[in-house]
Write a structure and sequence with these properties.
The protein contains two helices and no strands. By secondary structure, the protein is mainly alpha-helical. The protein has two domains: about 90 residues; about 70 residues.
Length: about 170
């Protein structure tokens, strides 16, 4: 003979456990949702000011370039002024020496090589940035795959664990 009061007590205990488990699951879910939303808010705030940072950096770079051009122009104007203002000291200006043609040719070669090097460096930098962006895309897909795997593993474990608990409490 089976004692029905014991069976009813187990069922009531199971319902109580399920109710508290459900409440706890909702509380945990709410906690994770809140924390997730807060992290996203912070990232969104950083994203809002990013265009301003980019513009400020770009403006600084343009001002720096202009300052370099101004420095070059001023230095050569000053040199020319010194040379032209006192012709007796400079019997031969640098432009009239026998080496002037060779120096001009070498200066052009150095300039052309520098421009090519800068172009190659720019292309390398752009390719590196594109590769970094592609790596971020791959990283995001990997995170999605790992999250899906972990979720499936947790569901499978919970399913197995729940089945084992139910089997244990039935006997």
């Amino acid at each position: 003979m089976v004692d029905k009061s014991k069976d009813e007590a187990f069922k009531a205990g199971d319902r109580s456990r399920e109710d508290s488990s459900t409440v706890r699951s909702v509380e945990i879910r709410d906690f994770y949702d809140t924390v997730k939303e807060n992290f996203i808010k912070v990232v969104d705030e950083v994203a809002k000011v990013q265009p301003q940072y980019s513009q400020s950096i770009s403006n600084l770079q343009l001002d720096y370039i202009q300052a370099i051009k101004n420095t070059i122009n001023t230095a050569f104007i000053a040199q020319r002024h010194v040379t032209e203002s006192n012709p007796t000291t400079w019997s031969h200006t640098p432009a009239t020496t026998p080496l002037a043609e060779q120096l001009a040719k070498q200066s052009n070669e150095i300039t052309n090589n520098t421009i090519r090097a800068v172009g190659i460096n720019n292309q390398l930098t752009i390719n590196s940035l594109d590769a970094a962006r592609e790596n971020l895309k791959i990283y995001n897909r990997t995170i999605d795959a790992v999250t899906e795997f972990n979720t499936n593993a947790a569901k499978a474990w919970n399913s197995f664990f729940t089945a084992q608990q139910q089997q244990f409490f039935r006997h």
